[in-house]
Specification:
alpha+beta; Beta-Lactamase; Helix Hairpins; 3 domains; five-stranded mixed beta sheet; four-stranded antiparallel beta sheet; 9 helices; 11 strands; rod-shaped
Length: about 475
């Protein structure tokens, strides 16, 4: 799954802030806690030093010392010792703390933070401050002030929680502001470009006025789209020219086939025309003829003229350009029409055409299929040198498609020519006897109709067999 820019920025920024925020929170909380603890401990030491001065002034005897310290330090527990570490106030449990000996031996205040016995946790600590004192009469000792740190720990924790809350608030504000800037300066312009690109070939690409990089991207994108549109227009013009040239090639090949048929048609028209002229001359004889014979001659003239008209109509139908269409056609009828056309050509005077089998109705253009068949029949006659037999077989392929095959008795197609057989302007005939476009145009016409053509006989002969497949026509019930 691909993530959007907002999501990626959110994840990346949140991860960065999480790492940086965790470090900043720990450092800030530690600094705040350490600073607060240092201030409180320093204040407690100053308080302990004041208690030492009080002991130097008031502890002439144990009773006076106890009375002087009765309420001197309500936040701390105070113990006063003389120079021999004998208690002058209420005695602590157990031996005096080691910090007392440190202060007495060093002659300077000493302090230590210690864990309370039998208690755990950050709040179970005491700040022990020992301050040496000395009276004007030479007496001296140590004042031990024990400050519990429960309130200090609670206060530091409260400050740390406040610092964490402020940092989390700050991180959330930075994250939201970063997402807002990303959406306004990056996501929204990119979305506009995407919407414009999805709007089709005629959509106008907006020129963004946001960050410099996105503005350059939009200008480059608009220039690219303009170039693509110009290329598409040139390509469309080229395709139109190619389509026109292709149609012209098809037309030229058809006209070439018509020219090859012209000699046979002239012979086919010449014979009945000569008979008609003879009948007309006989009818013009001034000696006249009986009415019955006259009617018989007129009937013969009519039959010959119809024969001429039928031949010319077939040739005109074959040569007339018509738009391609895909309709239901019967292959047997198309094959009969094509064989009727080629029988006028002189090369088919000694060539027998046999049609065998049946094929299901096909979907295609009868005129274009007839052009394909005429071309294949002419190629077969040329391959056999004008003598032999051509077999046209109709059947259905294994997949149900209508199929027809044109097989001759010639030498076959050389193996070296098979690969380029359907390429334009490739011909195996002598120079001047072929354009090399016949099979290429046959292949194009059949492919446009959804069909196909292939050489299905082994290369090198004997004989050549070209097979044509066409789409099956829908059933009449459908």
């Amino acid at each position: 799954m691909q993530l959007g820019i907002r999501t990626l920025l959110f994840v990346g920024l949140a991860s960065l802030l999480l790492v940086a925020g965790t470090v900043a929170t720990l450092v800030g909380a530690r600094l705040v806690g350490g600073e607060a603890e240092a201030q409180v401990l320093a204040e407690q030491r100053r308080h302990a030093e004041a208690l030492g001065r009080l002991a130097a002034a008031a502890c002439e005897a144990a009773e006076l010392c106890r009375a002087a310290f009765a309420g001197a330090a309500p936040e701390a527990t105070v113990f006063v010792f003389d120079a021999a570490l004998r208690p002058l106030t209420e005695a602590p449990r157990g031996a005096p703390a080691p910090v007392v000996a440190d202060a007495l031996q060093g002659g300077a205040p000493a302090w230590r933070v210690v864990q309370r016995p039998l208690e755990t946790g950050p709040g179970a600590r005491d700040h022990q401050v020992a301050v040496p004192w000395r009276a004007p009469d030479g007496r001296g000792g140590v004042v031990l002030a024990v400050f519990p740190l429960d309130r200090l720990v609670a206060g530091v924790a409260a400050r740390q929680r406040l610092v964490v809350a402020y940092l989390l608030l700050d991180f959330a504000a930075v994250l939201l502001f970063g997402l807002y800037l990303a959406g306004r300066l990056v996501v929204r312009p990119i979305r506009r470009l995407t919407d414009a690109a999805a709007g089709g070939a005629e959509a106008r690409i907006p020129l963004l006025d946001g960050p410099r990089e996105l503005a350059r991207l939009s200008r480059a994108f608009a220039d690219m789209v303009d170039r693509l549109r110009a290329q598409n227009e040139r390509l469309a013009a080229s395709l139109a020219a190619l389509e026109s040239a292709r149609d012209e090639l098809v037309r030229s090949e058809k006209l070439a086939t018509v020219g090859r048929l012209a000699a046979g048609v002239a012979h086919e028209v010449g014979n009945p025309l000569a008979a008609v002229l003879g009948y007309v001359e006989f009818l013009r004889d001034p000696r006249g003829c009986p009415p019955d014979q006259q009617q018989d001659l007129l009937a013969r003239v009519d039959r010959e003229l119809q024969r001429i008209g039928s031949t010319i109509r077939e040739l005109l139908d074959f040569s007339r350009p018509a738009p391609a269409e895909r309709v239901r056609i019967e292959l047997a009828e198309v094959v009969a029409s094509a064989t009727e056309l080629v029988r006028y050509d002189a090369r088919f005077r000694r060539v027998a055409i046999e049609v065998a089998g049946q094929a299901p109705p096909a979907l295609g253009d009868a005129g274009r299929l007839r052009q394909v068949l005429v071309n294949l029949l002419f190629n077969a006659a040329d391959a056999m040198g004008g003598a032999g037999r051509v077999t046209v077989t109709l059947d259905a392929a294994d997949d149900g498609r209508p199929r027809l095959a044109v097989r001759d008795e010639g030498p076959g197609v050389p193996a070296a020519e098979v690969a380029s057989l359907f390429e334009p302007f490739h011909t195996t005939k002598p120079a001047g006897q072929g354009t090399g476009l016949g099979l290429a145009i046959c292949q194009r016409l059949l492919e446009e109709a959804g069909g196909a053509i292939a050489l299905t006989s082994p290369p090198g002969g004997p004989g050549a067999c070209f097979t044509v497949w066409l789409p099956a026509a829908p059933s009449a019930a459908g």
